[in-house]
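Collaborator request, handled under Task 6.
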Amino acid sequence: MPLVARAGPVVAAIKGNCMDVLLYLGLFVVSLTVLLKASNWFVDAAERIGLSLGASPFIIGVTIVAFGTSLPELATSIASVLTGHSEIVVGNVVGSNITNIALVLGLTALVVNRIELDYNIWHIDMPYLWGSAFLLMFALSDGHFSFFESMLFLVGIAIFLMYSFRSEDQEKTSEMERPTVNWQSYLMLIVGGALVYFGADYTIFAIQKLSEIAGVNPEIIALSAVALGTSLPEVIVSLNAARRGKASIAVGNVLGSNIFNTYVVMSVPSFFGELKIPHDINTLYLPLMVVMTVLFGIMSNNKKITRWEGALLLMFYAFFLAELLGQAL
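Structure tokens returned to the collaborator:
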């Protein structure tokens, strides 16, 4: 009888854990489904509005779509500073940039077999992406991110936007090809963007809870799950765009998201409090981000990214996750 009495709480705890796992699995499935559907709305509306204004598909991907899907990184980083965990900011930026190149481009190349680029990303965008990666590495080399560096990064994103829209070589959409838009397109853009954000937010929450139940080290959750969760919009939007034959939007999304992450997600949260720069960032993860950025440029030099190159990118992502796991345990 005493054994039965002692077994009661244990059985109840197991049942409680099972219910929690089912609850968070259900939340993960629902939020991911919302993310999938909302990303379709967002891409369709952004493309239609952009084309109506005469912008090329690549410019749409590198600005409207990229910045919209990077909002979760910005919101998560600001929240981390306000709650006293500012070390998450740089981990989120570096981890998201690695994830965008290695996971997003790798999966996209596998899905479509080959990403064909119809826009010369080496004219402005790729050199600017390389510059942002090296500038971040030098800015963080002293283990501190100053107010001056924050302002410098905001100037950097302003210059990038100016050149993106004013480039003389930018492909314009002719008047005959421009679709007409109404209030429904703008509403779809707003609703789709909001649902992408909330879908990603609840997906992160579900991932974190499932990791905690499984007993995963909190450091792994902070450096991998948060970075992966906030990059889910880029993953979903890029895959959907690639499946519909819009690889320019997918590549532009990665380029724009990484530039936005480096210049905006890194600088804006610093105005809410001092940022802590973990030592591991400068010794391993930031150099890995720079290497991935350079590799992205080399692969796209011939205006295509093959399936085999996509597989190589996924191997780098697996290495990144393995290093996180090894350092956290």
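The cover message to the collaborator said: "Residues 2-328 form a domain with the A middle domain of Talin 1 fold (CATH 1.20.1420.30). The chain has a mean pLDDT of 79. Please let us know whether this matches your experimental observations."
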